[in-house]
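COURSE: Structural Biology Practicum
ASSIGNMENT: Worksheet 4, Part C
STUDENT ID: 0417
INSTRUCTIONS: Below are two proteins. For each, the amino acid sequence is given first, followed by its structure token string. Answer the questions at the end about the second protein only.

PROTEIN I
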Amino acid sequence: MRFKIVAFIALIVFAFACSKQEEQKPQIAKPAVKASHEVTVQEVIQVTEYTYIRVKEGDAEYWMAAPKAEIKEGEVLTYNQAMEMKSFESKELKKTFDSIFFVDKLDTKLGTGSMTQPMKPTISQEDVKVEKAAGGITLAQLFANPSSYANKTVTVKGKVVKMNSGIMGKNWLHIQDGTKSGSDFDLTVTTSDNVGKDQIVTVTGKIVLNKDFGYGYSYKVLMEDAKVAGENNPHKMMSM
């Protein structure tokens, strides 16, 4: 009995000593997260929808891309978040970037905190007339009452009036069928399928509303991960 008491006391002393050692262990500080980046513009390349900029931050130089904006060489810009893409190919520039950072918001360092305003691309309604797909809906039906199609899989037939490939691992289509509701006539579609500009296609995918990916990609109505059916088309695919 005496042995059990001594053993119990020894166990308590050992546990207390261990806890004190734990308390006395030095705490490893986590690296501070940099709140923002400050870069100086070295080079600017404008394309259809985006602005490519080569920047310098400290001793490092790298490429960035942002929604098209008026940016000048020598400007000092700041940003908080960016998404890096490796081996990104811009077909419009005929150039592959080993690494490039996509950012949706750049601020100019002018002492006023004013933002570099993106020049949003203009999508014009084309003179097209495409018959509704069997079992599908028109864009007018979709845009007239989008909430009734939210999170549902629908089929739309239309003409690919614009095509961007390799953005966030997807191809991005702009589809028009000649119908509209109010000022809405163009549907953005993401897909893994390769499609040519000006091709008439039938797309089937899930409708999502008010989708904001960041990095300049925000949509009131979007069709995601669509399957595309259409004739082969010789047109060269467009990209950033």
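PROTEIN II
(use this one for the questions)
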Amino acid sequence: MIQAFLIAVQFLTTLPVALRHPPTDSEIGRSLAFYPLVGLVLGIILATSGWLLRLQNPVLVSALLLTIWTAVTGALHLDGLADCADAWVGGRGDRERTLAIMKDPYSGPMGVVAIVIILFLKFAALTVLCENKVFIALVLVPVLGKAAVQVLFLTTPYVRAVGLGAPIASYMRRGEILVALLLVSLGAFLTAGSGCLLVLTATTGVLLLFRRSMLARIGGVTGDAVGALVEIAEACALLAFCFVGR
């Protein structure tokens, strides 16, 4: 269990961890159950940083928080977002062309635009939340983003035979993931109250629309799609918390 958690930390963050031994496919699959816990670690880092900087200008604080967020995650999900944006436009509705563009390591104009937009939305939302001292949102948003990944894997086929997500799709433990999702829901309601219903509804709505789009275009998901979902879900949750917090 500890090994699976460390795998999740190593994959989702740049935090230094030492695995006990090279990960097996089974352990990689089991690591999915710990994604929200890794999100909680990220959230605590962000919330603590925001609280320590709370007396500074909210614009400056949000810029610093976004920098910390990107650095700790290694811009992993932003890369997936860029690949998906390029593929969706360049693929022109063709499945194979879309998948081929996703594998291209270079980012085109649409990928750059997607990154700029998502970072701008996050920056604006962080500014509002820091101004209103809604630091609990900074804890919960990364958790919700990782929980969205769990739902996506549970409900959507993985379309590549090999890839970062292939072992997860093949060896994930559904029972453990369902327990994790239940704990995330309970924790969100206990910490954010009834206002969290709006946040969960908005995040779920984005997840469903994203999943539907993926199924229609490529018949499932890829690792890049998972990264894109995390960024979109986090931005949506931040924006929803702005309305709740105000």
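ANSWER KEY EXCERPT:
Q1: Residues 2-245 form one domain.
Q2: Residues 50 and 180 are 26 Å apart (CA to CA).
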